[in-house]
Specification:
294 residues; 10 helices; alpha/beta; 2 domains; two-stranded antiparallel ribbon; 7-stranded mixed β-sheet
């Protein structure tokens, strides 16, 4: 059954990806009605997440955020479909980079970099970055449980020379790149929820007890890597800008959890400014903090 679902999905997405963006955005308008109103997609999760994250806002304000979020989510869905047929040139027309001088300087100094991303705006369209930057571009990812879908997603993440490194292999890959003296940027989507056995640290994020991965901090501090935040903002429908925002020049020797707390707070500030662009359907707070950790 799962095999059949995958191939139906593959064929459907292949056909839809052939459509021009203006047609895909018409489809997005239809998707919006389905996910926001009827039948709706994870409406209870979105409502609960917004209520707990923004208790200071009125119900009317939270409903407005919810509608804007579902509008953006619908666009994101069709933009993901389009990715397989978007060339680097077409992506450059729609996606820009700013403040990359920071990375150029670090490359000249032969420094490696940890770049923090989040499920915010369209984080998947920036696979043309290897054409724009000098560093080797590495995406550290958490494999999907379904191997077919995992392979499908990763195929389009890596088509322009991006190196993929699973969480279980990242240290090995970092050691190999360092041994070959290849300057690299390791990109980590840091707002994922750790599995129960992987929880090592809890913090407060958007007013809630939140378990967070500390892998970015451990890798950065171990090799004294610089750390930046890749802040993706939406400049128009289907148009984005990625701004490189420095967090740390050096990370070795910093107090424990300083790095993690800093990038978590940085993301929170971004979300508070434009909350509609974060992935509110994600069950980010499905884990409960044990009493002994409070």
């Amino acid at each position: 059954m799962k095999v059949a679902i995958f191939y139906i999905f593959y064929a459907l997405t292949w056909l839809l990806a052939l459509l021009p963006m203006r047609v895909l955005y018409v489809i997005s308008d239809i998707i919006f009605l389905l996910v926001c109103y009827f039948p709706g997609y994870r409406k209870k999760t979105v409502r609960t997440n917004l209520q707990n994250s923004f208790p200071e806002k009125s119900e009317r304000e939270r409903r407005s955020i919810k509608r804007k979020f579902y509008r953006h989510l619908s666009d994101f869905i069709v933009e993901m479909l389009a990715l397989r047929n978007l060339s680097p040139e077409k992506l450059r027309e729609r996606c820009t980079l700013s403040n990359t001088e920071i990375l150029d300087r670090l490359f000249a100094e032969k420094r490696n970099v940890i770049a923090i991303l989040a499920h915010y705006n369209n984080w998947e369209w920036y696979n043309f970055i290897p054409f724009e930057l000098k560093h080797k571009f590495v995406i550290i990812y958490k494999p999907l449980q379904d191997k077919r879908f995992d392979s499908y997603v990763n195929r389009y993440r890596s088509i322009h020379g991006i190196m993929l490194s699973s969480m279980s292999n990242v240290i090995r890959d970092v050691i190999e790149l360092r041994s070959k003296k290849i300057p690299f940027i390791a990109n980590i989507i840091a707002d994922q929820t750790p599995a129960v056995g992987d929880i090592r640290y809890w913090t407060t994020f958007l007013n809630q007890d939140t378990p967070v991965y500390t892998g970015a901090e451990k890798i950065a501090a171990k090799y004294d890597m610089a750390m930046v935040f890749f802040h993706i903002s939406k400049t128009g429908r289907g148009r984005y800008n990625l701004n490189v925002e420095p967090l740390f020049e050096h990370t070795a020797g910093l107090p424990l959890h300083t790095i993690t707390d800093t990038h978590v707070k940085h993301l929170e500030n971004i979300i508070r400014e434009r909350p509609e662009y974060w992935l509110w359907t994600h069950r980010r707070w499905k884990r409960k903090r044990p009493v002994q950790d409070v």
